[in-house]
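Page 42, continued from yesterday. The earlier attempt failed because a stray header line got pasted into the input along with the sequence. Redoing it now with the clean sequence only.
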Amino acid sequence: MFYDLITILGPTASGKTSIAAQLANDFNGEIISADSRQVYKGMDIGTGKDLIEFQKNNINYYLIDIAEPFEEYNLFRFTKDFHFAFDEIKGKEKFPILVGGTGLYISAILQSYQLPEIADEDELYRLSQLTFAQLKNTLVKIKPKLHNITDLTNKDRLIKAISIERAKEKVNQSLPNVQSLNIGINSKREETKRRITERLKQRLATGMIEEVESLLQKGVSLEKLNYFGLEYKYVSQYIDGKLNYNDMFQKLNSSIHNFAKRQMTWFRKMEKEGVKINWFPPDYTAIKNFMNSQLINAKNIS
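This time it went through. Structure tokens are written below.
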């Protein structure tokens, strides 16, 4: 099997970034992020960018800090940005390494989604003038069997879901296939829970609250922060006085644990659909040895 991409995936706090950085260093690679929130500037601690992992080894990276938090960044834009980065890395005779935990983004690449263009600005404006109830009714009429009920809890998500559903009949982008060697990083459940909680404590102690305050001062709305979810949702509610510190911590910690479970559910779904994922604990030596056996035998690297 000839591989032209390495994909490192896994739930939050699994250690993906560190392993991807080491692989990039050892296999002449460059990083493409598959994280739907790391694209935004100023959202560093809450999204766990950990850029020091790349910078200390002088590893180039893509799709991080490429949008303002006021902007709309979506799947369609991600796939275009991915293929631009992929071609640029290959043009430098380096190995593209896709790393992240946003299952939809990873699926779009590994399963070659056909994607519609998003709605134009006029349609988005018309949708924005509707009430929450009208938007909800519109989406239910278009898609009676909703799989993602979170689309019904936020106006921005409703508008996005409606525009995507309406555009599906006008598919105009067929993505080229990539041949990816996929590495999944996952620890035992109790270890993952411990890592999530410890990481949250560290983030709160090293400026995450101040980061959210800075976003608010720059004009990012509470509604937008709620849309970003997890750290930005609950910390902004704490700043807004809707939660005390302890409640904020407990709710946020629980939400991140649930998010990790949903990520694993998505990855298992990908496997059922035929995507081969080679699972490892966060043991770099074992992963490197596996990579060597796969890539050298395939004569993919010099």
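Notes: The two ends are 16 Å apart (CA to CA).
Reminder to self: strip header lines before submitting.
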